[in-house]
Amino acid sequence: MLGDCPNRDLVDFIFDLRDRIPVAVQREKYGMSMLQRSASEHFQMIDLLEFGDVDALASLVRKHTLGSLIPTSENNRARTETPA
After folding, report:
1. Are 69 and 50 contacting, i.e. CB atoms less than 8 angstroms apart?
2. 19-48 mean pLDDT
3. SS3 string of the chain?
4. Is-above-0.85 flag for pTM?
5. What are the distances in angstroms from CA 29 to CA 15, 21, 25, 36, 61?
6. Using CA atoms, how far apart are residues 29 and 18, in angstroms rounded to an integer?
7. Is 54 exposed, middle or buried (0-12, 13-18, 19+ CB in 10 A)?
8. Closest Cα partner for 22 from 70, 76, 69, 74?
9. Cα–Cα distance between 14 and 31 in angstroms, integer?
């Protein structure tokens, strides 16, 4: 998919980001549901590019590249709760 991208700096950046993710995290994430979600996000990115929705695209790319590393209210709640 990235082979035809004319922006080689962007391609290098994407692969640099991938290389920074620990192998254990990569293996854990590559289940069928993750791959389906990832593919769906790629199609959404194309749609957002066509629509020119820069803000939504930036948000989706951030979510896509950082995945579970982005704090959510649910993750924060689980971290702050103490077992009974």
Report:
1. no
2. 76
3. CCCCCCCHHHHHHHHHHHHHCCHHHHHHHCCHHHHHHHHHHHHHHHHHHHHCCHHHHHHHHHHHHHHHHCCCHHHHHHHHCCCC
4. no
5. 17, 11, 6, 12, 17
6. 13
7. exposed
8. 69
9. 21
pLDDT beyond 60 at 81:
no
Residue of 70 and 12 predicted with greater confidence = 12
Q: Which amino acid is at 69?
A: L
Count the residues in the chain: 84
Q: Please identify which residue in the block is written with the tokens 């689980």.
A: 78
Q: How far is the C-alpha of 39 from the C-alpha of 44, rounded, in Å?
A: 9
